[in-house]
Amino acid sequence: MYKVVLVDDEIWSLEGLEASFEWEINGFQVVGKFTDSLKAAARIMEIKPDVVFTDIRMPDMTGLELMERVRSQNRDVEFVMVSGYAEFDYARQAVRQGACDYLLKPVDLEETDAILERLHQMLKYRKEAADEILIQRILYEGQEEEKLLPIAGCRKVQAAVILGDEMKASVCRQIQKYLQEENRKYVLLIPAGKKIVLLYEAFEEEKTEGWIRYLEGLGENFYIGLSQTGEGGDARLLLKEAIAASSGKFIGKQLEMHKGYNENFMRLLEYVEENYTKKLNLKTLSEQFFLNVSYCSELFKKVTGMNFSDYLTRLRMEKAAKLLSTGKYKVREVAEMTGYSDAFYFSKVLKKYFGVTPARFFKEQEREETGDGEERSGEESE
Fold first, then answer.
1. What CATH number does residue 339 fall under?
2. Residue 22 and residue 102 in one domain
3. In the 8-state DSSP scheme, what is residue 230?
4. In this structure, what DSSP letter does residue 192 have?
5. How far is CA 156 from CA 79, 198, 200, 204, 234, in A?
6. Which of these ranges, 51-60, 147-156, 258-267, 313-322, has the smallest mean pLDDT?
């Protein structure tokens, strides 16, 4: 989930802004709301959101000033400006100064999903670009300085990425000491002070568990991703795997729960659970998570007890049931929210899965809530 902060000096406008978007369905979470722009500026530094939605005209600090102050602290935050029609020139100025988008009040509810989709893609591409720059830096510096290439002659190599809000020098020393005591060759970098990147001589099978337990013991505030093992020439692929793991399925309890299963596959499952509304196919997912498609198909049956198509259908139907049971959405809306562009086809799948049409589903929910287990007279039969 990408983190969002909302800022508007009028409480009714602030609440309306929050209510206008389907945040979580689109991969976002509102982590802070402020009517005081000065307090918002201070808290943004602590909360570290990915996006800030802010009104432009506010008494203590304008949205433009807020963006400027935050950006002056080197915070990599995207800004979406919210303005009235009369402030349109301010909005254009905001975009010129680096805001990624702007909204006019009142917010057009039909545009909200499109706005979040654009934001989601922007943040995704920005992260991918940052990861690629990091990988290039490691590989480039390694080629230029021999001291950064001790792993060149290693038969098996592994990558690890450790994320934390503040990476202290003592943590690096602990890791270096462990690797040195185990007589491991390694490369260690600390880009931006919030990430430790390791390329190291892979541990033998009997020592791997000890290494994982050691990493787990570094502290609860760290997210740790491990790649599979490979050869020195696979450094780019291994780094990409470790970076993906550090921001997806982490080692630790998850690894204990799924011991013996491919870690990349577990990350693939998590991705499917978070992106079930999108068009997904096994071949593309296998490539994205560095898996052979046939092996991936076997893992689906082994881990979930069903093939990929059935697993995705089950996930979507369970989500659809929850949405339908609220009574807030039309069938067409639920279809779109669960990955179906055709409401008629969605209804067919739902009837096949639950044995009832969406209309009947609503009635079944009503009966459960009232405790009436018998058919009511006068109800339409299916």
1. 1.10.10.60
2. yes
3. B
4. G
5. 44, 14, 9, 9, 10
6. 258-267
